[in-house]
Design goal:
Blueprint: H1 5-22, H2 24-27, H3 65-101, H4 103-117, H5 121-132, H6 136-162, H7 166-173, H8 178-214, H9 226-235, H10 242-268
Length: about 280
Amino acid sequence: MRRDPAVLLALLVVVVLATAALGADWIAPANPLAIGLRTRLHPPFWMEGGDPRFLLGTDHLGRDLLSRMLYGLRVSLLVGVAAATLSAVLGGALGLLAGYLGRGVDVVAMRVADVQLAFPLLVLAIAVIGIVGASLPAIILVLGLWGWAGFARVMRAEVMVQRELDYVQAATVAGATPLRVMWRHILPNVASSAIVLWTFAVAQAVVVEGALGFVGLGVRPPAPSLGSIMNDGRQVLGNAWWVMVMPGCLLVALVVALNVLGDALRDWLDPRRVRH
């Protein structure tokens, strides 16, 4: 990984953005909710008419765009990490049980997963959040409960291969209980696939959270999110392009960096890959 500049750049982008999101309270140059009608639609500082106080400009209500992007980035990362972790824990546990125990558990878990995967994520999220109301816990719960099926199918396939190997048979003959075999012997050998899938799940959840915010079903105003900032920018795109383009570029950079890291982890954790 150290020999690949793209991976190093992606890692740097993720670390910088995560640090900026976590430290938004100290890094943000202004209050993201402070309205200033006299400073509305100021361009970025390098453009004509720009103000050094507003490095990336202001929106239609005079709010500092950089500060709102930092706080919106925090929301996106929180949703992505929390939803992906919930999916990994729930789906990983079900996949482990289905792959090792088989029979009824396998049939029920996989049929439920098939039904789950038949519904498009964005459509399902819009429908559920439109009913229960837009809030941060609701978004995390919906995305987390939807994503478990992918983890379950991957973990099931990995466990079905591992349970036939000699080390699992030896542990069983030695008297290890099924729970101990799954937790102590099989899980460490299949965790790499879950880690890679978790990285991609974070990127997917970030994109969906941004889409929900763009259509007005994200976190409740006036709390900023990257999607809601872009939605605000859509109304003034003709004369204030930066309000929509800047958060869009930030969202793209984060998602691309996460996907590049996921690809690198997949190659690095592949036991069939020859290392020199």
